[in-house]
Structures are given as structure tokens and as C-alpha cells.
């Protein structure tokens, strides 16, 4: 389904547990060429280099670039070094757990709230704008979201920024339709990654999914389900789909309450 030999930029690789890693590997398996972006050298040295989940040879084979999306010049520099792209994945989010998440809805550090918004949401607009000249034959951009139809405890500002991200996906889909660039998001169920581990009491959301999901949800194995959907959105099979939020979450986000006993597998 991925067009063989075409190049895809996957942004937001931290380690081999990252959604970005699963998406990149899936695109590669389907015949695409993948360039990954990592936030900076420090992140690479701290998380990717010491990881025992993949071999040194596998790490050396990754085509890595660096880009901190809070710095517009770094986004521009990243794209300047690239040729033609068929797709771009924005798999990036950040929120200071102390000031943007937790039991209270904090407003004491607006600079942290704005930083979280810039990285987790607004950067998608810069990335899409800079990607556009590299997609002269059209292309696909996706971002990663989390259920914005319901309110989750402790997730606070990140939930607001995901709602803004989904609105931005629709606005960018309208803007870039004339460039034949599609913009969509995947709303993923909770999966085990470094970003998830920073969400206070993430286990609570994981447990909630066990009670809600009509199709059993596995936070480890189902990273692949998210990656498969991303490959579909990157491919011509999804040619006329744009401005959409595709939930890949076992169905949990449609539920009006937990599964009753007779509904459980
Ligand atoms: N893990 C989940 O349960 C889950 C569920 C739904 C959506 N998501 C979303 O998936 C995306 C990827 O997260 P993940 O779960 O794979 O975790 P992850 O920690 O592996 O990835 C998050 C990435 O964001 C990057 N990042 C943070 N600040 C950055 C900056 N200033 N510049 C560039 N990169 C920066 C980090 O370096 C990291 O690579 C995020 O948007 C996240 O919100 C995750």
C-alpha cells in the first residue's frame, strides 16, 4: 500500500517504544524509505543509544536528523536538507507534568502551558508549511491525538492541546487541499511509551481502556495497530481522506460507560 521507494519523514523518535518507531518500521516493511527526526542529540544519547530493545546495527541503519520543533529555524533547516517526500508523521507532544497535568487545573505557569501548546499543536502548522514544497506531487501529513470527546483525569492541558491539534488538522486540511496534501490525525488508545509514562497515574487510563474497549486493547501490542493505521493514511489507499481524526483505540472512545458483564469477551 505504501508506494515503494518513496520517502517519508517520521518526526518524534525517542526510543524503540515510540509510536514514531513503530510507524517508521511499518512504512519501511511496506517498501518506503524513512527519515526519522529526533528532538536533539541529548535525547538520542539518553534514550535511543542505551536502549537494548534493538541492536546496534539496527540503530546504525536509522537515517536520523535532529529537530526541536519549538524552534522554527530548526524546522526550516530540517526540511532544507530533504528532497521529495510522500508523507510526514508528527508524533510529538510535550507537557511539564508539574505545571500542565495533575489533580488541579494549573494556570500558575502560563509559559509552560504555551510551550506545551507550541510543541504539541502549533508546530504541526509549521511542519506542514515547510513540508509542502517537498510534496509537489501531493502527500500526506498525520499527527497523533488522544480522545478529545471525553475528559480524562490528570491529563488537563494536554487534553486541551489535543483538541486544538484536531481543530488544526481540519484547518490545515482545508488550507493544503489545493496543494494535494492531505492532513489527518490518529486518535490512539493508551500505549506504553516514554511520553505515556510521564502522564501522572497513566495506569488509570490503561485500566479504563480494559473496562471500556469493545475490542480488547493491549497498550504494548497495539502500538502496531496504530502504526498500521498510520501506514494506511500515508498511502494512496486513503487518497480522498483529509481533515479526519481516525480513532485506533479498540472502540473505547465511542462508549457511554464501561462494558457490562454480558458484553465482555
Ligand atoms: N502513548 C500514548 O498513550 C499516546 C496516546 C495517544 C496519543 N499519543 C501521542 O503520540 C505522540 C508520540 O508520543 P509517544 O507516546 O510515542 O511517546 P514518545 O515519548 O516516544 O514520543 C514523544 C516525542 O515527542 C518528542 N518531543 C517533545 N518535545 C519536542 C520538541 N520540542 N521538539 C521535537 N520533538 C519533541 C520527544 O523527543 C519524543 O520523541 C504524541 O503526540 C502523543 O501525545 C500517545
Written description of the protein model:
The protein is of the alpha/beta class and 265 residues long. The protein has a single domain, classed as Rossmann fold (3-Layer(aba) Sandwich). It has ten helices and seven strands. The protein has helices at 19-29, 41-48, 56-60, 72-80, 97-100, 110-131, 156-176, 194-197, 202-212, 223-234; strands at 7-11, 33-38, 63-66, 87-90, 139-145, 181-188, 245-248. Strands 3-2-1-4-5-6-7 form a seven-stranded parallel sheet, with helices on both faces. Helix 1 links the parallel strand 1 (7-11) and strand 2. Helix 1 (19-29) packs across helix 10 (223-234) and helix 6 packs parallel to helix 7. The longest helix has 22 residues, at 110-131. The chain is globular and about 50 Å long. The mean pLDDT is 96.
Amino acid at each position: 500500500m505504501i508506494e515503494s521507494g518513496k520517502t517519508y519523514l517520521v518526526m518524534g523518535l525517542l526510543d524503540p517504544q515510540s509510536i514514531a518507531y513503530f510507524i517508521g518500521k511499518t512504512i519501511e516493511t511496506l517498501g518506503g524509505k524513512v527519515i526519522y527526526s529526533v528532538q536533539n542529540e541529548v535525547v538520542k544519547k539518553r534514550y535511543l543509544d542505551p536502549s537494548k530493545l534493538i541492536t546496534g546495527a539496527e540503530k546504525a541503519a536509522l537515517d536520523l536528523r535532529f529537530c526541536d520543533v519549538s524552534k522554527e529555524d530548526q524546522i526550516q533547516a530540517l526540511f532544507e536538507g530533504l528532497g521529495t517526500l510522500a508523507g510526514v508523521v508528527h508524533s510529538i507532544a510535550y507537557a511539564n507534568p508539574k505545571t500542565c497535568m495533575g489533580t488541579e487545573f494549573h494556570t500558575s505557569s502560563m509559559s509552560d502551558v504555551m510551550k506545551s501548546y507550541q510543541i504539541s499543536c502549533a508546530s504541526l502548522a509549521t511542519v506542514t508549511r515547510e513540508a509542502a514544497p517537498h510534496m509537489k506531487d501531493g502527500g500526506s501529513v498525520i499527527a497523533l491525538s488522544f480522545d478529545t470527546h471525553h475528559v480524562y483525569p490528570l491529563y488537563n492541558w494536554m487534553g486541551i492541546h489535543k483538541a486544538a491539534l484536531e481543530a488544526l488538522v481540519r484547518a490545515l486540511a482545508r488550507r493544503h487541499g489545493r496543494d494535494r496534501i492531505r492532513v489527518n490525525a490518529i486518535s490512539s488508545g493508551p500505549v506504553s511509551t516514554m511520553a505515556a509514562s510521564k502522564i501522572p497515574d497513566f495506569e488509570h487510563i490503561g485500566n479504563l481502556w480494559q473496562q471500556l474497549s469493545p475490542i480488547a486493547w493491549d497498550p504494548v501490542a497495539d502500538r502496531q495497530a496504530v502504526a498500521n493505521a498510520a501506514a494506511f493514511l500515508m498511502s494512496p489507499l486513503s487518497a480522498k481522506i483529509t481533515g479526519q481524526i481516525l480513532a485506533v483505540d479498540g472502540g473505547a472512545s465511542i462508549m457511554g460507560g464501561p462494558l457490562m458483564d454480558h458484553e465482555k469477551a
